[in-house]
Design goal:
The complex is a heterodimer of chains A (132) and B (75). With 132 residues, chain A is an alpha/beta fold. Chain A has one domain: DsrEFH-like (Hypothetical Protein Ychn, Chain: A, 3-Layer(aba) Sandwich), CATH 3.40.1260. Helix content of chain A is 40%, strand content 17%. In chain A, strands 4-3-2-1-5 form a five-stranded parallel β-sheet. In chain A, strand 1, helix 1 and strand 2 form a beta-alpha-beta unit. In chain A, helix 1 runs parallel beside helix 4. The relative contact order of chain A is 0.26. Helices cover 31% and strands 35% of the residues of chain B. Chain B is globular, with a radius of gyration of 11 Å. In chain B, strands 1-2-4-3 form a four-stranded mixed β-sheet, with helices on one face. Chain B has one domain: TusA-like domain (Translation Initiation Factor IF3, 2-Layer Sandwich), CATH 3.30.110.40. The chains are: A alpha/beta (132), B alpha+beta (75). At the A-B interface, helix 1 and helix 4 of A face helix 1 and helix 2 of B.
């Protein structure tokens, strides 16, 4: 049975894709849609707590525009989505394990916890699934 | 007449919607929020936002590059 949940699998480290994930997640959450974001692969580096923006984000021409035009930071958008709606974020347990990171290494207050891909896919079975 | 005015002029998508959601949460049911924005996608964005959240879009108008919306908190 379909639900109206939005499930975002974020694995790219590209600034533009992380920005779009943050925009989609925050807008859907404030529009009364439950959202879950699973962060893995290169995307995990963007959530490294305390790292400078130039280390977090790597992108192309549009990334430069986002920075020069002072677009809202992706982390700020994720935080606002959590504050104003039903947005849950999960760190890929495999990505943390391979990188040798604990959950506390990631941006504070964003993640509910670490999760395996199997559980995330199972939860997303009847929702709308987006990969970035 | 609005109970509160939100100046979202100069803010890029999706900040006007996020700020509007935050402002609406602080209003009581039945109160009205006026939003002023310059984001060119504002009109369809706020129409969709009201449709999905159940709040009532009382007015939507454009004056040059300024968009003004009146939203009644009903949800």
């Amino acid at each position: 049975m379909a639900d109206n949940g939005l499930y975002i699998l974020l694995c790219s480290g590209e600034h533009e894709k992380i920005q779009m994930a943050a925009m989609m997640a925050s807008v859907a959450a404030v529009s009364e849609r439950p959202v879950q974001v699973f962060v893995s692969m290169n995307a995990i580096f963007a959530f490294d707590k305390g790292a400078a923006a130039e280390k977090r984000y790597h992108g192309g021409a549009f990334s430069k525009l986002l920075c020069s035009q002072h677009a809202p930071d992706a982390m700020t958008l994720f935080h606002q989505g959590k504050e104003l709606g039903d947005l849950k974020m999960w760190a890929c347990s495999m990505a943390l394990d391979i990188q040798g990171w604990e959950l506390g290494r990631l941006d504070e207050g964003l993640f509910e916890g670490a999760l395996g891909l199997t559980k995330f896919l199972s939860d997303a079975e009847n929702g709308q699934f987006v990969t970035l | 007449m609005a109970d509160q005015i939100l100046d979202a002029k100069g803010l890029n998508c999706p900040l006007p919607i996020l700020r509007a959601k935050k402002a609406l949460k602080e209003l009581a049911t039945g109160q009205v929020l006026e939003i002023q924005a310059t984001d060119p996608g504002s009109i369809p964005d706020f129409e969709a936002f009201c449709r999905t959240t159940g709040n009532q879009l009382l007015e939507s108008k454009q004056d040059g590059k300024i968009y003004t919306f009146l939203i009644k908190r009903t949800a």
